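Handoff note, outgoing to incoming analyst
You'll be picking up this chain. Sequence as last confirmed:
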Amino acid sequence: MTPAHVRRAVEIYMRHAWPPEEEQKPRITVEDLEGLNDLPALFERFETAHRDDSESLKRYTLRLGNRRYPFMKFVVQEFLVNGEYFFSVDTHDNLDIRPGAPDYDEWEELKAWNRELKAKIEASWDEAGLPTNSDLRALVEEVARVEREEKKRKRLLLVDDEADVVIGLAALLKARGYEVEVVHNGVEALARLGREPLPDLVLLDYEMPELDGEEVLACLRAEKRTQSLPVLMATASNIELDRVQEVSGLLRKPYPRHVLFGMIARLLADD
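Most recent structure output, in case you need it:
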């Protein structure tokens, strides 16, 4: 990846998020990134996640917003594989606005609009040959062909609305010998967990449409049948740990795959 790739990705983002006919203007433009000819200098303009864990991978964000919502972010990050960077859009719309709040319906409509915009931007990046989560998926599927282990009698349920990410994760974990099922949102997760057999562990993303990870966890802990089911939650957000006290483990995105494998092995051994 080069600064030119980053500027091209930002240019495409802006074209979708800030149409030229709009009177409002973004806080940062492509021109603000000109003249930065190496990645360290370029990333100084970004926000960097500060992690206590030295094994965490790099995540850089730029709050570019869009014409309706100022908090959407352009993301450049490593994930699962050290040294490989991918572009994604973080809608950053996980505000705690619950049903019954005065603006709840409007907020849900805006979140749906943000997700559609995210999909358009990421599809345009793919068409331009820029590295996105679809490339991450292809890379980890290749890694999975090499990193194979013997079969394990453990079933995992992966819950994540990022289709390419969760399919890549499933490939890695199947290669490690686990039985793996995949669902793409919290509603699907609860429907699956209402049936037998229960998985031995749930890998649950925190930020999802309809029902987020916190809501799914609350539903599981409210039922006797699932109240002790191991749940490993993954998030890029800075969430308060007391909000998810009943989670079995917490993964800070972006994480290297060996950290994921180690946490799953530990939680299954404790089960």
